[in-house]
UniProtKB/TrEMBL annotation:
Annotated family: Belongs to the glycosyltransferase 2 family. WaaE/KdtX subfamily.
Superkingdom of source: Bacteria
Identification of the protein by name: Glycosyltransferase involved in cell wall biosynthesis
Cross-referenced SUPFAM superfamilies: Nucleotide-diphospho-sugar transferases
Gene3D superfamilies: Spore Coat Polysaccharide Biosynthesis Protein SpsA, Chain A (3.90.550.10)
All copies of domain Glycosyltransferase 2-like, residue ranges: 4-105
Length: 270
């Protein structure tokens, strides 16, 4: 069994996060929220991490049983040349695992000091500075326990950040080079996202829904599967397209105007 330290970085929530975290022996820190990338990199720079390996988990994620077993049995037997490892992402929606989705492997484990998060507003991946990246094949789950109203409100706020990310990939509004050292699957996903950006607005979200729900057999996951693919695969991405359309309609492709419009209308300073 690996001895682990748990660091919780909270963005000044008003619930019982602090009490719950501390009751389980977690180290508790607070930092003002900007986005996931900024928050995670702040944790790497400010928390007194003294372990060899770091595991990133968001608030609605947890390790599956086989993920715990893989880490306990294999992690510290890896050669020093290995800097990071991927885990398999499982999606759980309304208590049901979405089994008919493309398999996604994500770098979530890395040696401390060898990686950090990309500076992106959405779809950020862990960027490894050097060394090998391997697949451990253990799993972690994304399982949000809140209701549909909470979920849709969250994704409405996410849609602004996703629109910023798409506009940044198209117009470099953040000034990022996007020349990052990603694992093979993340790099492939990023190339597919660029193709998605070049596809027609609104049509692309509908085709993405059809791909997931029909051609990848998402309909086999029952009513929960329909709601998952409809909301996350079509509704959410149509909402993102609506915000991209709104911004482009008002600003064209002028970077300074886009930045100013986003700050004025969405309160986000880029």
């Amino acid at each position: 069994m690996i001895n682990a330290k748990v660091f919780v970085v909270d963005s000044f929530s008003t619930d019982k996060t602090m009490q719950i975290a501390k009751s389980y022996g977690a180290y508790f820190y607070q930092n003002e929220w900007v986005n996931h990338a900024v928050q995670f990199n702040w944790a790497l720079e400010n928390c007194p991490i003294d372990t060899d390996w770091v595991l990133r988990l968001d608030a609605d994620e947890y390790l599956c049983e086989n993920g715990v077993e893989v880490i306990n049995n294999e992690l510290y037997n890896l050669p020093k040349s290995v800097s990071a490892a991927t885990l398999v992402l499982k999606r759980v929606f309304m208590g049901r695992e979405m089994k008919h989705m493309p398999k996604i492997k994500m770098v979530r484990l890395f040696r401390f000091g060898r990686a950090r998060s990309e500076n992106r507003w959405m779809d950020e991946h862990i960027q490894v500075d050097f060394g090998e990246i391997i697949d451990l094949n253990g799993a972690f789950a994304d399982d949000n326990l809140n209701n549909i109203g909470w979920w849709t409100t969250k994704h409405n706020s996410y849609s602004v950040r996703e629109a910023i990310d798409l506009l940044d990939m198209e117009y470099q509004i953040l000034g990022n080079s996007h020349d990052n050292k990603l694992d093979e699957q993340a790099a492939k996903k990023r190339k597919l996202k660029m193709k998605y950006i070049k596809s027609p607005l609104f049509i692309r979200s509908f085709l993405y829904f059809l791909y997931r729900y029909i051609f990848k057999f998402g309909f086999l996951d029952g009513k929960e599967g329909f709601l998952w693919h409809f909301f996350q695969g079509w509704w959410y991405r149509t909402l993102v397209d609506a915000k991209v359309y709104e911004i482009k309609k008002n600003c064209g492709n002028e970077v300074d105007k886009i930045r100013s419009y986003i700050h004025k209308n969405y309160g986000i300073r880029l």
